[in-house]
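Input set for joint prediction.
Command: fold jointly, output tokens.
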Amino acid sequence: MNREDNKIVAFCCEHSAYQAANKAGRTRLYYPDNVRIIRVPCAGRVDVQHILKAFEKGAAGVLVMGCQEGACQHLTGSTRAKERVKYAESLLKEVGIDGGEVRMVNLAPDMAQRFIREVKEMAEKIEGR
Amino acid sequence: MQVRIGIFICDCGKSLSNIDFTKVRERAEKFQDVVYVDLSSSLCLEEGQKNMLSAIREPDINRVVIAGCSSELKENVFGKALEELGLNYNFLSLANIREQCSWTHEGDVTDKALELIRMAANKARFLQPVEKNYIPVNKEVLVVGGGFSGMKSALELSGLGLRTTLLEAVLGGKLGEFESFYGIEATPEEMLSSMRKAVAGDENIKVLTSAEVTKVEGQAGDFTVSIGRGEEKVCQSFGAIIFATGYMTEILPQDFQLKPDVNIISQRKLVEMLQAPGEFERRPRTIGFVLDVSNENSRLPVLSTLNNALAVKKRLGSEVYVFCKSLKVDSEGVEKLYREARERGVVFLKFEERPRISKEDGRVRVEARDLLLGEEVTLLCDFLVAEEKVLPPEGTEALSSMLNIGTDSGGFYQDENVHLYPVASERKGIFFVGGCKGDSDFTRISMDISSAAMSIYKLLCPGKVMVEVEKVKVESERCRACLTCVRVCPHGAIQMVRVDTEKEVAKIYDLACDGCGICAAICPAKAIRFEGYADEQILAEVEAIGESL
Amino acid sequence: MIIAQRKPLEEIKNMLSGYKNILVAGCRTCVTICWAGGEKEVGILSSQLKLASSGERNGLSILEATVERQCEKEMVIDELGDKVPEVEAILSMGCGAGVQTVADIFEGKPVFPALNTTFVGMPEKEGAWVEMCGACGDCFLDRSGGICPVVRCAKGLLNGPCGGTRRGGKCEIDPEKECAWVLIYRRLEKQGRLDLMRKYYEPKNYRAVKRPGRVKAATA
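tokens >
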């Protein structure tokens, strides 16, 4: 991967975002094709290292997508992911990646429109860089 | 052993027309460690699967990538198919080229499909086998608390054929504090007495009085519980535990600026007096109730006030006034109860500011501004029944911290998730019912008890449970015993154990583990491996993106 | 255990300026437990350094390694020995003891500290560590009910509160802190040992620990 490829790595929790992405597909709603979904059992599985490695390997943007807080099947997973994304943001800022290229998204499994909006917004953001 | 990957691509009945499958097949054959690529139109159908299975045997494939529709629809089916071939079901890696690729992008998506397949193939190179096994579970259940909720739990469990031990300091509980229940013929005393008889006569139920739980170790299916009875200490194993430890009530002096005394009494005292009317020197003319001064969330004060107000009307015929800020009638049957009370002549006065309470000539003087009248109202009553704050039972803080289970803002035990799992607690095999959860609605409590009993039955009845063995595993060599994972696991599935009688390390219990991976992510020593979502597997997916196709 | 924190990236980058080929060495003991210099943090810092230098020609080349305990010579040699000859400099993510052990062994290579070693402490809760001990060499804990006034009292007093304690038992100097002597009083009260607070204690002998300190076991 190279940053110029504008690839977005989306870590998607299988209980929420992964389902939302599927719903987007079933309802034939289109979004940019530069997103690559990596399925995880819970947003809480995603660690700071995964996010940094994604950028190191050339990702232009990273989305961490999990359940809405309070609705996480594993209670604290979403919240932990949020904290880690915040920390990753500060680490990336230290190396000049500072334009919102990493983002935490909380959504419910039926929120196809929201999923698409987040992907589109991230795609626009990295394009404009 | 050399990894040999077989890629099976499904074009979904030739419907995924924006993917050039010929090109995909050509390129996929060149991916690292791939020895076989096949194209089908119906992998989910029997014929497609048969072809796939025979294809796997040929070039001795030992990792399978399936590219097609969304995983959760077919995961189990394909997993079983692999098992039939003698391949571990975890050697399966899936690429979603339908819902998350073909159906959702305009134009040609061949390149993306190829990349998704490559990601799955790269991950497959690092997959390791996971075994499934049965672990035995103990069918005995422990119920802690001998009040209404506890006894009902034990009786329901017994009805399902499960042997139960019922632990209590004293059999009875708070039910006896209600004089009567509107809408229910039997008095609480009668209800309790018949339950006590049923429990005593039930051969599936063993009652231990004057006993308490001092420690709980282990996991669902095999909890080791230490029980203390006076001087004696006993250790016993149970498959599941229901806590029905009730609640406490307390009149908070700071709410009233005065202490309970002869004329200012608790609900319980009122009930006692009602049951022995000869106690009264003379029939009280006026009895007042005060509600909602302490911002109470529990419905219990309303329930007891309305029930007891009605009881006063029936037994003593006194004038009854209820001062309240708001009346929470959203429990089952309470609106009707409220209406009945009003029809019987109970007067409700609504205040905004806290009423001022003082003593005058041996009676209690209550002054408040009634919202509807818009005027100051002064009442002199013979007795004032003060609102009691509903509190979690004694020992809740200690017990919840010992069990690693959260409590809510009121200090009561909390449901695992109010929306998704309203009956279970955060730990598998441990349930809380009744007053100790802050509940006071009979119907709700009875339903909770039935749910809990059913869940326990499902868990324990077969006598053994199938688990994925060590799917998430702590590598004891790397473990630093920093306790981070133990503290962080939302399901309380990790405990410290001694290995080789020397080092203390963390151990993940398969039955209680719910597969979230929070521990694997947070372990500072990177000692926890989550098979299927291990670091190197996730990284393999990331690295496969963008590699030249 | 020893608690440390990573230095700001700018500072680390400045140390490394001019070097193209480095080894980042972590430690699996104290700094792993306080999330500062374990294998994970080595990986994160390496990613950051690579990202920071990705624009440059001949970007940074990084080897990663984590020693079981960086203050043990044998373990350092074991883990790092074959990697050091390939690099120009070593960035140690160990505590001060670890950094110096590595530096003493590989004298020919510059060894840089990625962490600031801060104190001896314990976890208050997951992810948060608090200082408990100042390693003063003259432990006072028997007289203060197990609460160290040297470190937990802002003025390091040995003879009771300074008189400036704020309402709520907070420290005069740092209102976020609890007054250590209030804590000590309450602790001794619980144990019925308040008489200890009536005694006068001589000022601390700060020469009890000669720097650098040396301890030798009698049976060595």
